[in-house]
Design a protein that fits this description.
It is a single chain. The chain is mainly alpha-helical and 242 residues long. It has two domains: 136 residues, no CATH class; 55 residues, no CATH class. The chain is built from nine helices and four strands, in the order αβαααβββααααα. 22% of the residues are buried.
């Protein structure tokens, strides 16, 4: 079986770093990215159209992509991979329809019903599954001591292999908003520059406007307090006493 590094080498090491910040993939996106194909080229196609396009045009690694879609579908149905959103195509003698189903209610018999373009997988789950199935090359240990320049080059080569699929980190919607608030208000804040810090109410309103999933006012206030610079208090100009 080809490793991720080999698959990308077959494709000429394409630059897919524009996908680096995406957290949730469809099974189609996960499969195509793994084999070095940009999913944006096929985003307008349904499951059947996509597979037909791959079989007809035969881009490099197309066989790997099709079998990965099947493997990921089976892994979701056997609960080897956790999926936050599963969409199934059901049919009877004359009709077909889509349903969203809980993972606990599906089994391997549903593998052929998985809609690949809409069923989702988290980046961390994909990473764990690829690692378990040996898609990442294991560094070969050697007794030859590398000089510092060679060590740096070797480190860069190994890092490139997992550029799109970094080690998973625990996160929640609130933690992600914490990072965004820091980036928006505090990364460049200089308390010695004399500029007043943003008021707490302003930060809370920014969270409400840009991240409505944070519905609780108490949670928005807590996020502001966590991120706020130690000397900024609740923000605004300080009252000057004569």
């Amino acid at each position: 079986m080809a490793t991720l590094q080999e698959l990308y080498k077959f494709k000429g090491n394409p630059d897919l770093t524009h996908w680096k910040t995406v957290k949730i993939f469809s099974l189609v996106e996960a499969s195509l990215l793994t084999v070095g194909i940009d999913p944006l080229e096929y985003s307008h196609l349904s499951d059947y159209q996509l597979k037909d396009e791959l079989r007809t045009k035969r881009p490099i690694n197309w066989q790997h992509a099709i079998l990965l879609m099947r493997s990921l579908s089976e892994a979701i149905c056997t609960h080897e991979i956790k999926s936050p959103f599963i969409n199934l195509e059901k049919s009877d003698y004359s009709n077909t329809w889509d349903i969203v189903e809980e993972q606990a209610k599906i089994g391997i018999e549903n593998a052929s019903e998985i809609i690949l373009t809409s069923t989702k997988i988290h980046r961390d789950e994909l990473f764990k599954w690829l690692k378990k199935n040996d898609y990442f090359e294991h560094p070969v240990q050697t007794i030859v001591e590398l000089d510092p320049v060679e060590k740096i080059g070797s480190s860069i080569a190994n890092d490139k292999e997992v550029l799109l699929l970094p080690e998973p980190t625990y996160t929640t919607p609130a933690l992600e908003v914490v990072q965004l608030v820091i980036r928006e208000f505090w990364e460049e804040y200089d308390p010695d520059a004399g500029s007043p810090p943003p008021k707490q109410e302003f930060v809370k309103q920014w969270i409400a406007d840009n991240h409505p999933q944070i519905e609780s006012d108490a949670l928005r206030k807590a996020i502001d307090q966590i991120c706020r610079h130690p000397i900024a208090k609740s923000g605004g100009n300080k009252k000057i006493t004569p």
